[in-house]
Each structure stands twice: as structure tokens, then as C-alpha cells.
DNA sequence: GAGCACTGC
């Protein structure tokens, strides 16, 4: 996409009037829109969507589908009934940037006809007709409006990524679609928008389809059109899922990327990557598995450069990974100084989440660190595994954004053929408690027979149902409990954190627990660069609580709050942000994470207040607070064995305190933790010491059989 | 001396 800065405020030499400049600019935009591959099939797409309930669009990168299709549909009158076009994205940034772009193309103010809505940031109004949003947000909307009645069309973009939200959303949309065509028919077929396909669909459906959705009595909602957009070549799975829905292919526009393979297998891909870096001649993007590996390669590169002649030292390496503070991430986006070439050492973040300009070469070792979840043990693991074919293609595509590029895959071509076509959908790799709670709140009682695109294992479903039951969210017959289950479903948190809040109200420490769940809901709070390990560790120890990580989080949150209150009473928002950045830097706290935690905190506080829970503080009585933690996280308790190891009480597994925990190296009889992660060993993350007697007292239903 | 890929409500 050519960069077209908004020229509205730029008076070109004063020679052209403002309105002329604007006209010229709009003309330029129109030309650009017409040149997109999708423009050639506008009429056909509009017709297909008019005639089909569901349409699958396979659009390659650069086809313009995300920005153009909603505009086509708006123009074709899909909003005439006052209903909006919703477009979902897996990522926040995408929703925001695309909405901004489309508002500009339409010549309207963002938040008017075109807007976006993501968590913490709603840029929509009553007049918004094209609404971009995250898929998770639309799922939340469904809790309040089960028919999604304000939309005439929903476009699910990037469906090939198969995030857990996309998968659940597709299942839900299928249901909503059927239900809505039924209500449309119930209204005496008076809706002229009814088409043959609507009545065909109505005949196919069972009588009880609507019964699981809350009935919207007397309302006449027109049928819902659904468009599933995917970049994967395989449209079949989507088409089959939607009863043989029609699929349309739209060409993309990318520069060619030559792909090279190694002759034989590489024993050491880090070594091979470094060799390849020195053979390429432009800006390079190297995909590595994690922070540790990136830092190792950085070190090796520096070492190697020192042994080269001066004229060959013009290489600048920059790391980028998610937990890197944003100021340092920015360095990857800056052009290298004249005469230098840039090597970006990146994790998966550079696959889809960020696009680094100027990349001509991609080095792909063919591995990725991926999360896996074992429902039996409740342990998450991070393993280095081969990428999928789709992932390899995505990576190589990063070299062809601005011109022809090259991709070096550090494995032989026959290995590529052996790779899985696509990555295992997230829904098969994670804990389902949250998803199940939401489905239950949407009226889906029988999870086992819910029409998932890809069904999670029976074990995973059963385990999560069990967990929700133990938390009191479900009754004995696995129905959503009242009020606890309903309250928990309303909170945008892991169910166990929602439960902790409800309990904290009874323990009079809701203020502390609000901070806790906010801090637990965000990415790592402490930042520990390898080269400043001692300094960062000292900073952490200054603020740490001997009781454990939970109280340490409260300390961090409150200390920063106090600092802000003292240093900028009454000053501007920018000043506050600046002060916060300063405080974070001095204390080796990740500013992005802490800001995020403050956002979560205020959002959740709002929800909790709305539920009528009283926010009280336990003051200095942290014993009370730890008892409350015990009551909430009783399933995650571990006790120390005579041999010094810890054993998780629920599963009996040997576990250890995570090296990042403030309790690392301490010896307490009993602890609670938030999650189990398996890397080189089974680690408990976020740990607090408790009295073992509290377990029997506060979670007798779980520990009844124990002495 | 150990060790957290990436999203999202």
C-alpha cells in the first residue's frame, strides 16, 4: 500500500487552495482503491453476498479485502436497514489501523460512519456503520446481545489464524445465523429482504435451534450475512463447516520472494543463521525462538564482527520480542545508519503482529516456540517445534513487502514437504474454562455437542467443566450457577480470577485483589535484560515481599501510584505518562505491562461496582489477604516434601518455584501458585506462601479427604 | 545458575 499521508493540513506551497488539495487527495485515494486486485471483482462479491448466507473469501496478502469489502457492502446498501457491518480482527492494532485507513478513504471522521472498538478504546458512535473490532470483543458483545442484532453482515477476517476467539465466534455465528433466519420467517415472511437461501436454511434447521439462545420476543431481525476471509489456500474446511458455503478466490499483490533451502540438515541452526547473515547483502529478518536465543545470537554476532576487517563491520543487529519494552522495540523500525545494514533478530512477533519496513532477506530456521497444554495435568509447556507450511510461507512473505526478496530456509527442501499444512488451532492447545463459561452464559448448555469447527478433546472439556464446578460457577448438573456463575461470566478475566474477586469481597480485601488480578492478567511486569541482570534483580528485591509474588505485585502497583500522586498532582496526562516511564525505567518494571494493568484495573473495578460488590481494603492485614488467596487458588497448592521438592496437591506432580519468583530459593511448607509451566522442569509461576491448615479450613470440599 | 513464543476480553 503506497503511503499517503493525510494532506488535508498541508498547503502545498500555498499554490493550491485547501479544497483543491483535498479533492486531489481524494482522487489519489480513489485511484489507489481502483488499482487493488479486489476492485476488479467488486460486483461479483456483492452479488455473491446478496445471494448466499455465507461466503468464504480466500484473499492473498495485498488483495485489499480488509479495507475494501466493507465499503463495497456499504455502497451496495447492506446498511440501509440501519444495521451495521462488523469486521473482526484477531489483533487490536489491525482493527485500529484498518479503521483509520477506511475512514480516510471514505472521507469521514473516525468514529462516525467508520469506527473501531477494542478493549479500553471505543471509537464508535450511533452512526457507525462499518465497525472494525477484535474477535474477542464481538464475543463479549454477544453476551449482551445474543442475536448480534445490530449487524446485517459480519466479516470474520484472518480466519486462517484460528485463534480461540475466531473458532468460538464462528460456532456462535453459525447458530445466530440460523436463529435469525428463523425470527425473520416468524415475522410472517413480511421481510422483503428474504431470499431463497433464507427459506432453504429455515427448512434445514431443527425446531430447538433458537431455544438455546435467549429469545428476543417480537423483534424482527433480518438474516445475518457472514463472510469468512482467510489467507490460507485451503478454503475447504471453512466451506465444509458452513454447509458447503461458496468460496471465492481473490488475487493478491506481493513481490516475488526466492526461496532457498540448505543441501542437508543443519545440526546447529543458530550457527547456520549467523553464517547466512554474513552472506546476505541487505536488511535481514531472522526468526528465532525466544529472548534467550536472541540475546545469544546478538552476543555471537558482536564477537564475530570484531574479528572482521573494518569495512565488513557495517552490520547493526536489533532484537525484537514481545516482552521487550516498547522504546527498545522501536529501534527495530528505524532505518540503519548510512552504509550499515540491519539485522533484526525476532521471535514470532514479526510474523504477523509487526511489520518491519525495508526487509529484503528472511532467514528461517524452521522452528518456533509454541505453547501446549496438557488437560490431564493442567501443565502448560513451551516447546520448540517445527513450523507449519503456512507459517513458513508467512515468514518468507515478509521479504516481499516492498520489493523482490529472498528467503533462506535453514533446512532441506524435502523437510518442507513433511511439515504440517497449518498450525494446530489454538482451541486444541489451551485451557477451555473461559470459553466454556462464556458459552454457558450464551445459553449453550451442552458443550459436548456444540458445533465446534474443530472439537477440543473430551478430556479438555471435562477438565474445564470440573474446574468451573469446583469454582462454584456451575451447579451439580453443570448449569451456570446464580449469581456466582453469571457474575463470573460477566468479568473479562480468567474464571479463577473472577472467583477470587467475588471471594475477596467476603474477605474484605477486594481492593487488594483487584490490583492482584489486574497484575496477574498482564504480561511480565519485571524486565530483566541479560546485560543488567544484577541491577534489575536488586531493583526487584527492593520492592519484593517476603510473602510472595502476589503481595510484591501489589507493592509495585501501589508504589508507582504513590510516586505518580506525589510527583504530578494536577499536571497533564502526558506528564503523568512521562513520570511513569521514568519510574518504570528506574525500577526495571515494564511500563507497557504496568499501564495495561492499570487499564485492566479500572475496567474491572467498573464491572465489580456495577455488580454491587463493596470495595474494601484489608489495610495492613496481609494475613487476611493470603487467606483469601488460599480460598481462591486452593486448586493450585503445593507442599514441600521431606526431600525438599514441592508436590502439587491436586495432581501429585513434582514442581518447583519458578526462577522469576521472589520466593525462589526459600523453603516454605506450603504455597499457592497461579500456573504451572513446563520448560526444562515443572515450574510454579506467581507463588505465595500460605499456612497448610488454611486449605482444609477454606477449601474443605476439595481437601476433605486429607488430614 | 536457573528462565516466559504470540495474541485477546
Task: Describe what this molecule looks like in 3D.
With 707 residues, this protein is α/β, with parallel strands linked by helices. The strands form 3 sheets. Strands 4-3-5-2-6-7-1-8 form an 8-stranded mixed beta sheet, with helices on both faces. The protein has a 6-stranded parallel beta sheet with strand order 9-16-13-10-12-11, with helices on both faces. A 5-stranded mixed β-barrel has the order 17-18-19-21-20. A hairpin with a 3-residue loop joins strand 20 (670-678) and strand 21 (682-689). The longest helix has 23 residues, at 164-186. The relative contact order is 0.07. Residues 1-12, 188-196 and 198-218 have low confidence and may be disordered. The chain binds one DNA strand of 9 nucleotides through residues 90-92, 118-119, 134-137, 139-140, 161, 163-165, 289-292, 321-323, 347-349, 351-353, 368-371, 382, 384, 426, 434, 438, 491-493, 521, 523-524, 528, 600, 603, 656, 658-660, 664, 677, 679-681, 683, 685.
SSE topology:
Elements: H1 18-35, H2 42-51, E1 54-59, H3 65-75, E2 84-89, H4 92-106, E3 114-118, E4 121-123, E5 130-134, H5 135-144, E6 151-156, H6 164-186, H7 196-204, E7 225-230, H8 236-241, E8 246-250, E9 257-261, H9 269-279, E10 284-287, H10 291-306, E11 315-320, H11 326-330, E12 341-346, E13 361-364, E14 367-374, E15 379-386, H12 389-397, E16 405-409, H13 413-418, H14 433-441, H15 458-470, H16 484-490, H17 495-507, H18 510-520, H19 533-543, H20 549-567, H21 573-586, H22 591-610, H23 622-632, E17 637-640, E18 646-648, E19 654-657, E20 670-678, E21 682-689, H24 692-698, H25 700-703
Parallel strand pairs: 1-7, 1-8, 2-5, 2-6, 3-5, 6-7, 9-16, 10-12, 10-13, 11-12, 13-16, 15-20, 19-21
Antiparallel strand pairs: 3-4, 14-15, 17-18, 17-20, 18-19, 20-21
Helix pairs in contact: 3-4, 5-6, 6-7, 14-15, 14-16, 16-17, 17-18, 17-23, 18-20, 18-22, 20-21
The structure holds one DNA strand of 9 nucleotides.
Amino acid at each position: 500500500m503506497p503511503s499517503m499521508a493525510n494532506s488535508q493540513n498541508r498547503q502545498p506551497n500555498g499554490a493550491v487552495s485547501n479544497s483543491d488539495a483535498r479533492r486531489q487527495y481524494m482522487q489519489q485515494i480513489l485511484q489507489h482503491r481502483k488499482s487493488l486486485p479486489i476492485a476488479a471483482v467488486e460486483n461479483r462479491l456483492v452479488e455473491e453476498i446478496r445471494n448466499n448466507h455465507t461466503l468464504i473469501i480466500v484473499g492473498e496478502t495485498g488483495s485489499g479485502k480488509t479495507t475494501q469489502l466493507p465499503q463495497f457492502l456499504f455502497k451496495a446498501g447492506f446498511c440501509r436497514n440501519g444495521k451495521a457491518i462488523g469486521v473482526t480482527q484477531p489483533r487490536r492494532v489491525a482493527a485500529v489501523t484498518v479503521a483509520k485507513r477506511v475512514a480516510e478513504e471514505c472521507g469521514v471522521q473516525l468514529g462516525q460512519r467508520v469506527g473501531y472498538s477494542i478493549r479500553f478504546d471505543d471509537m464508535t458512535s450511533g452512526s457507525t456503520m462499518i465497525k472494525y473490532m477484535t474477535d474477542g470483543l464481538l464475543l463479549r458483545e454477544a453476551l449482551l446481545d445474543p442475536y448480534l442484532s445490530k449487524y446485517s453482515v459480519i466479516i470474520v477476517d484472518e480466519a486462517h489464524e484460528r485463534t480461540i476467539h475466531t473458532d468460538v465466534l464462528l460456532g456462535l455465528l453459525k447458530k445466530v445465523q440460523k436463529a435469525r433466519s428463523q425470527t425473520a420467517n416468524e415475522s410472517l415472511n413480511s421481510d422483503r429482504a428474504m431470499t431463497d437461501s433464507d427459506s432453504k436454511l429455515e427448512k434445514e434447521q431443527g425446531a430447538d435451534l433458537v431455544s438455546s439462545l435467549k429469545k428476543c420476543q417480537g423483534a424482527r431481525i433480518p438474516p445475518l450475512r457472514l463472510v469468512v476471509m482467510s489467507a490460507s489456500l485451503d478454503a475447504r474446511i471453512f466451506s465444509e463447516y458452513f454447509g458447503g458455503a461458496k468460496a471465492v478466490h481473490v488475487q493478491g499483490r506481493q513481490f516475488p520472494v526466492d526461496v532457498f533451502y540448505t543441501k542437508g540438515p543443519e545440526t546447529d541452526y543458530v550457527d547456520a543463521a549467523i553464517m547466512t547473515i554474513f552472506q546476505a547483502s541487505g536488511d535481514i529478518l531472522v526468526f528465532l525462538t525466544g529472548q534467550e536465543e536472541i540475546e545469544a545470537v546478538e552476543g555471537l554476532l558482536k564477537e564475530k564482527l570484531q574479528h572482521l576487517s573494518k569495512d565488513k563491520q557495517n552490520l547493526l543487529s536489533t532484537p525484537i520480542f514481545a516482552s521487550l519494552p516498547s522504546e527498545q522495540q522501536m529501534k527495530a523500525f528505524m532505518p540503519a545508519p548510512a552504509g550499515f545494514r540491519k539485522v533484526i533478530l525476532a521471535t514470532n512477533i514479526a510474523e504477523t503482529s509487526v511489520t518491519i519496513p525495508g526487509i529484503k532477506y528472511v532467514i528461517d530456521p524452521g522452528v518456533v516456540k509454541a505453547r501446549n497444554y496438557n488437560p490431564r495435568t493442567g501443565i502448560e509447556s513451551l516447546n520448540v517445534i517445527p513450523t507449519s507450511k503456512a507459517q513458513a510461507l508467512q515468514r518468507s512473505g515478509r521479504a516481499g513487502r516492498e520489493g523482490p526478496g529472498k528467503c533462506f530456509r535453514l533446512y532441506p527442501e524435502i523437510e518442507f514437504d513433511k511439515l504440517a499444512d497449518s498450525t494446530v488451532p489454538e482451541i486444541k492447545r489451551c485451557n477451555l474454562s473461559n470459553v466454556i463459561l462464556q458459552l454457558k452464559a450464551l445459553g449453550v448448555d451442552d458443550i459436548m455437542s456444540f458445533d465446534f469447527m474443530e472439537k477440543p478433546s473430551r478430556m479438555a472439556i471435562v477438565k474445564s467443566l470440573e474446574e468451573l464446578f469446583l469454582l462454584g460457577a456451575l451447579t451439580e448438573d453443570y448449569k451456570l450457577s446464580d449469581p456466582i456463575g453469571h457474575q463470573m461470566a460477566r468479568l473479562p478475566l480468567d474464571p479463577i480470577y473472577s472467583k477470587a474477586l467475588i471471594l475477596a469481597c467476603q474477605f474484605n480485601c477486594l481492593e487488594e485483589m483487584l490490583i492482584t488480578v489486574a497484575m496477574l492478567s498482564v504480561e511480565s511486569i519485571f524486565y530483566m535484560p541479560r546485560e543488567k541482570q544484577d541491577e534489575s534483580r536488586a531493583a526487584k528485591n527492593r520492592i519484593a515481599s517476603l510473602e510472595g509474588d502476589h503481595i510484591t505485585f501489589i507493592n509495585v502497583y501501589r508504589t508507582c501510584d504513590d510516586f505518580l500522586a506525589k510527583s504530578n498532582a494536577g499536571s497533564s496526562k502526558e506528564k503523568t505518562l512521562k513520570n511513569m516511564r521514568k519510574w518504570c525505567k528506574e525500577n526495571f518494571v515494564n511500563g507497557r505491562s504496568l499501564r495495561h494493568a492499570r487499564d485492566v484495573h479500572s475496567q474491572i473495578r467498573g464491572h465489580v461496582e456495577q455488580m454491587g460488590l463493596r470495595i474494601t481494603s484489608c489495610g495492613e492485614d496481609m494475613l487476611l489477604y493470603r487467606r483469601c488467596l488460599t480460598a481462591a487458588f486452593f486448586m493450585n497448592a503445593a507442599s514441600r516434601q521431606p526431600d525438599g521438592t514441592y508436590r502439587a496437591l491436586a495432581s501429585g506432580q513434582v514442581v518447583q518455584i519458578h526462577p522469576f519468583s521472589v520466593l525462589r530459593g526459600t523453603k516454605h511448607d506450603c504455597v499457592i501458585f497461579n500456573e504451572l509451566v513446563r520448560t526444562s522442569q515443572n515450574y510454579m509461576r506467581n507463588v505465595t506462601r500460605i499456612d497448610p491448615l488454611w486449605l482444609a479450613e477454606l477449601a474443605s470440599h476439595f481437601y476433605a479427604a486429607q488430614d
